[in-house]
Every structure is written in C-alpha cells, then in structure tokens.
Specification:
Layout: H1 21-32, E1 41-44, H2 51-65, E2 71-75, H3 76-88, H4 92-100, E3 104-108, H5 117-132, E4 136-141, H6 153-160, E5 163-166, H7 172-185, H8 194-199, H9 206-221, H10 229-236, H11 280-312, H12 318-324, H13 332-356, H14 372-385, H15 408-419, E6 428-432, H16 438-451, E7 457-461, H17 462-474, H18 478-486, E8 490-494, H19 503-518, E9 522-527, H20 539-546, E10 549-553, H21 558-572, H22 578-586, H23 592-609, H24 615-623, H25 661-671
Parallel strand pairs: 1-4, 1-5, 2-3, 3-4, 6-9, 6-10, 7-8, 8-9
Helix pairs in contact: 1-2, 3-4, 7-9, 9-20, 11-12, 11-13, 13-14, 13-18, 15-16, 17-18, 21-22, 21-23, 22-24, 23-24
Length: 672
C-alpha cells in the first residue's frame, strides 16, 4: 500500500527555525543516506507542528536522490487496518513480506500503538528486519516513546537505539517567516505590519497559524480596503495560539533489468566418427553447444524458481509455465516482473473487494494473473453493491442564501470552494448558532459540487455519521462502511460539535480527514461553536479543523431579515408589501428560521380571517396591538346587531363591535 506523498510536503516548503532545525537536519541526513544514520529516526511533537510534513519531506528527498528507491508512507491506523484485512484475506505472510522489500518506511502517528500488543509485536518484528537489512524506518508521534501508554519496552529500546528528536513550537521570527511564505504561495498581499501583528498573537501551532492566514485572505477578498494590523488582531485574536498543545496507491518503481542478447538457437553437433579425433572445428561447435545449453538452463531455472514461489503463495502460474514449453527463450526478467505487477494488482483489488464484501476474500478470481478481467469484474460487482453515502438535500440551493454583511465572507468562501474544491479552503468550517443558515449553506455547496459530476458527495450530520458507525460495528462491516466515504470526492459534516466525547467517531473522522485532504478532496464542517470550544474534541482533530478556513455566521441583520421576508412574500403570496416587510425586519430575530416563522404566523392569521397580510395585522398577531377602529360614515344607519335576512334568504354579515361606535369605544376603553 504505497501511499502517494503529498507533493506540497517537501523540505523546500518547510520553514526552518530554531525550534525545528535539529529535526530537519536529522531528516535530511536520513534522506541522503537511508539505513546508515539514525535508524530508526523517531520525531515527536504536538499536533500541528509539521511532523507529517517533515516525514513526507524525507520520502520526497530520498526519491529525488534515488528514483528507484522503494518508499512507503502510511499512518499507524492504516498499517493496522491493512494488516487485519490481509489476515482476513489469508495473505498475512505476503503482507509482512511486502514491507521487507521497502527501502524507506515512513510511519505516522505511532502514538496509537497504545494497548495494541499484537501490532506492537508486528512493528517490533518489522523494525528488527529492516535494521538487519540496512533499510530505513522513520516514525512520528505526538509524544516521546516512553510516554506512549503500555508500549513494549523492547520497542522503546529499539527507538532509543536510533535518534529520538522533538519539534518545538515556532518562535516569533519563524511564525512571521511561515506567514510570509504561505501568503506568497497564495499570492496574497497584505499591508505592512499585518503578518507581524498576527505572528505576535502567540499562535504556537502552525496549522492554526495557516487557518488565521486563510481568514485574513477571505475577509480581505470581500473588503473594499486592505486589512490593517489592528483589524487583523481583532479578526484573529490570540486565544487559539495560547493553547497548548487514503489515498491512491502507486507501485514502487521496479528496476528494469538490462536487456540480454538474443539467444542463439542451439546447433546440432554432428556425430563424430567412432575413434576419430576431435578436430578444432568440432571443439568450437562443442563450446557453442555448451554455452547455449547453459543459457537455456539459466532462464528455465529462473522461471522455475518464480513458479515455485508464487505457487507457494497460492497464485496460479499457468502464464509462467507456458513459457517453459516455448522453443524460443524469453526475457525471464521481463516476464517475471510483468507477472509480479499483475499479482500486486490482484492483491490491491482483493483488499478493496474484501472491504466492500467480506465474502469475496480469498476468491479464486484474485489468484490468477492470466485472468485479470475476471478479477476486475468481481471488484466492479462489489463496488456496485456498496450503498452510496447520503447526498446533499436538493431543496437547499446557494441562490436562496441571502447575501448581507454577515454572510458575505461565507458566500465568497463557498464560491471559491466550488470553483477549486480541495485546493484553497480545506477544510471549510462554518460556525453559527441554531438557525443561522449554516446547514442551508452546507447542503447548497454540496449540491454545486455534486453538479460537477466529479463523483459522489457525502453530506450528513454528525449524529448520523456516528449512528452509521455503530451499525457497522454491530454488523462487523466497518471496512465496507469506511470505503463508502473514502470513495467520495467531498465530505460535508453538519454539527461536528456533537462528536465531542465520542472517541471512536473521532478516530474514524481523523483517518478519513487525513486521507481526503492528502488526496485533494474537499471537507466542509458546520458547528455551533468554534473548534476550540468543543468539549471533548481531541487536539489532533481540533488543529486540523482550525488549519482551514473558519467562517462565523452571525444572526441575520435587518438587511438580511427584510430580504428574506420579501422573498418569502413573493414566493407564497405573489406580491410584496413593503410596509409588512419593513416591520418584520425591524423585529429582533436571532435566526432566519425565526423570521420565517413570524411571517408564517401572520399569513396563517390572514388566511383565517379571509384578508390580506398587512403590517397592521402583523402588529396585532405578533405584538398584541389591536387595529384602529373603523370610523362610522356620517348619516349611516345604526344596526341593532340582529342579522337580517337578505332578499335571497341568506343572512347578511354581522357588524363587528368596531363598526358599532358606542360599544366599540366602550370595549376599547375597557381593554386599555
């Protein structure tokens, strides 16, 4: 499972300062000479300080020096998951052997070895094997080995035998350098002193620092004037910084064996007459015969050894056996390498199929490299049988979101995300109270992303995400459940604040987050509170949420409230009453939902009374202010209040108390 390294995570893009200089120096030394110095290299730091960046930088640098180097990067959870899948598919030994052929192994988030005795034993065995073969292993963690709970003492000693080094929080100068570098990459220009003002806030987490930069870029994009240092300090604040702290698989490059000369056809040696002496020409022919026979035996021996190896691992070798029956000697290296590439493809397909449909594990279709089409058809069947994730609701569209001073930044960020999914604001976090419109905006963005036909877009609430996980655990189908979301082009999660204190949900979201971000896919979250205020949220998730763009959706201002009322009146009544819209907009409301509910009360009252919705009716319904009495026309006849029959026998409408001046005036006085 060779994971594609993030192309942005290189030594060249890593800002070096006093807090990380030693770690960078050690990492570069390892990249230049894998397996000879600092083996293993163990780097630890709090979340958000660049461990993963540094780890992938080692891989990129090592490959640039030696492109034929086999490099593998994976998180510990991916290592555990893939190992369990291999065991389920009956390929445990093959999976172990695969890592022994790796020249440089990069393992992220080793702290999750806690209480995993079986995986600790596997990692210990792998570390010993790689060190014996002079192959390099580099590991990262959010704490030193001695502080990883219940970690095997033998592993601690192995790590200590190499080099254990930490990455500290960046100082002021490094923070300024990071902001300048990232602003330059984003082609964002700020007034003099703005970046220095943000660096001075004391944000000691690089991921949060980049999140602050994203906020400034987003706000400046919708502002008429460049942001000032004072505005930057007010926008970002310093509280965040004062806190303490999937994937596409690619084949490792296989060296191509140098081409061998075309074999010479074996020549028949003419029989030597009995008793005749071997002349010089006969000796020459004998030497040619012996040489050719030796060459033929060599390639047959090489093919035969490959047949025995792959038969021992349970694969059908008919394709290789057919070569032995050929009269023309093939290129054995080319034939064996092609066979091995197809075996690796079969393994990859079988692992995916087993995760989608466990009953397909060990299927004979995944054991014959000569029948790749059968394996592909079986995998396609497993994919088609998988239930797609929940999609965004089509009733919420971006055109229906009213733009105002409070929503302008969020709408601009939404447009950028739709234009460049996974590129600029990833993740995008929408923060606001109940009814602020964050769910509407979340689904609206999802619909636009889905409309691009790039793949499935998952959009669901955090409680739904947790409920699905619980159901998958109950059915022993967690692997298939994971695959539903790993195939998505975007994940949109509503009310992420509700995953606080839910450890397993956070574990799964953390893995999914890393996989989607590393593969350039978009993540969007909504929350009732900023990530820093979510109780029970793990630091590794909090820093990732804060590393994107966090946009607050405030309660609707009068401008937005009036626009909402006008839109709803036209949609429901077909006409616009400016006085009614202005009155409803003037009433306090902490959400668009409340504004619409107030309008609905007025419309219901108007329908019940058989009259149109007016500002006067709204005051009566919402504030209890009765309408002004209707003045009696001069000379009009008074009624006794008795309903008189009309000429057609129908009763005429009774006059209300407001149309009977004396009684109406008295009742009004009593009501007052």
């Amino acid at each position: 499972m060779t994971v594609t390294l993030n192309p942005l995570y290189r030594f060249e893009t890593f800002v070096v300062g006093a807090a990380n200089r030693l770690a960078v120096t050690a990492a570069k030394a390892v990249a230049e000479a894998p397996g000879t110095v600092y083996n293993p290299l163990f780097i630890y730091a709090r979340p958000g300080l660049g461990k993963t960046h540094l780890l992938m930088g080692v891989g990129h640098a090592a490959r640039s020096i030696n492109p034929r180097l086999a490099v593998e990067y994976l998180t510990l959870d991916e290592f555990v998951e893939a190992f369990h899948a291999a065991i389920a598919a009956g390929q445990g030994e093959a999976y172990r052997k695969r890592f022994l052929d790796v020249d440089l192994l990069l393992v992220d988030d080793v702290q999750f070895l806690t209480h995993r005795r079986e995986m600790q034993a596997e990692l210990l065995r792998l570390t010993d094997a790689l060190q014996t073969a002079n192959r390099q292993i580099v590991l990262t963690s959010d704490r030193p080995p001695a502080e990883i709970e219940a970690l095997d003492e033998r592993l601690i000693r192995r790590f200590a035998g190499g080099l254990i080094i930490d990455v500290a929080a960046p100082d002021y100068e490094t923070r300024v350098a990071i902001l300048r570098r990232k602003a330059e990459e984003r082609r964002a220009a700020f007034a003099e002193g703005v970046l220095e003002a943000v660096a001075g806030l004391g944000i000691d987490n690089v991921r949060e620092l980049l999140g602050a930069l994203n906020r400034m870029i987003a706000h400046q994009a919708v502002s008429d004037a460049p942001i000032s240092p004072a505005e930057a300090r007010e926008l970002i604040g310093g509280t965040a910084g004062r806190r303490s702290g999937g994937v596409e698989h690619s084949e490792p490059s296989v060296p191509t064996a140098p081409s061998e000369p075309e074999p010479v056809a074996a020549a028949a040696v003419p029989p030597t007459p009995r008793g005749a002496e071997q002349d010089e020409f006969s000796d020459f022919l004998s030497e040619i015969h012996a040489t050719v026979a030796q060459q033929v035996d060599a390639w047959r021996t090489q093919i035969g050894a490959a047949i025995l190896r792959w038969q021992g691992e349970g694969y059908r070798t008919g394709r290789l056996e057919a070569l032995l029956d050929s009269d023309v000697a093939p290129d054995p290296d080319q034939a064996i390498q092609g066979f091995e590439r197809d075996v690796e493809r079969l393994r990859t397909m079988e692992l995916e199929a087993a995760e989608l449909a466990p009953e397909l594990a060990g299927s004979p279709a995944f054991r014959d490299p000569a029948e790749m089409s059968a394996a592909e058809a079986l995998l396609l069947r497993a994919r088609n049988g998988a239930v797609p994730p929940p999609a965004p609701s089509p009733i919420w569209q971006l055109a229906d979101v009213v733009e105002g001073a409070g929503t302008r930044v969020a709408l601009e960020a939404a447009r950028v995300v739709v234009q460049e999914p996974g590129a600029r604001y990833n993740p995008l976090v929408l923060v606001g109270g109940s009814g602020a419109g964050k769910t509407h905006l979340l689904h609206a963005i999802g619909n636009l992303l889905a409309g691009q036909c790039l793949g499935s877009v998952a959009c669901l609430s955090a409680p739904e995400f947790t409920a699905e996980l619980i159901d998958a655990i109950d059915r022993d189908a967690v692997s298939a459940w994971r695959q539903r979301y790993r195939r998505c082009v975007a994940l949109l999660l509503d009310d992420v604040h509700l995953i606080g204190e839910k450890d397993r949900t956070q574990d799964e979201l953390f893995l999914l987050f890393n996989l989607l971000v590393e593969s350039g896919r978009q993540l969007i979250f909504t929350s009732a509170t900023a990530p820093a205020g979510i109780a029970g949220l793990e630091a590794r998730l909090r820093t990732r949420l804060e590393g994107g763009l966090m946009v607050e959706l405030p309660p609707p201002d009068p401008e937005v409230r009036e626009a909402v009322v006008e839109r709803e009146l036209i949609a429901r009544v077909g006409s616009l009453d400016p006085e009614l819209a202005a009155y409803l907009a003037s009433r306090p409301a902490d959400s668009v939902r409340v504004v619409v509910a107030q309008l609905q009360r007025v419309l219901n009252a108007a329908e019940a009374r058989g009259q149109g919705a007016t500002a006067a009716l709204a005051r009566e319904v919402l504030d209890g202010v009765p309408p002004a009495p209707v003045a009696r026309k001069p000379g009009a006849n008074r009624s006794s209040g008795i309903v008189a029959p009309t000429a057609g026998g129908a009763r005429s409408r009774e006059k209300t108390v407001w149309e009977w001046p004396e009684i109406g005036d008295r009742l009004l006085e009593e009501w007052r």
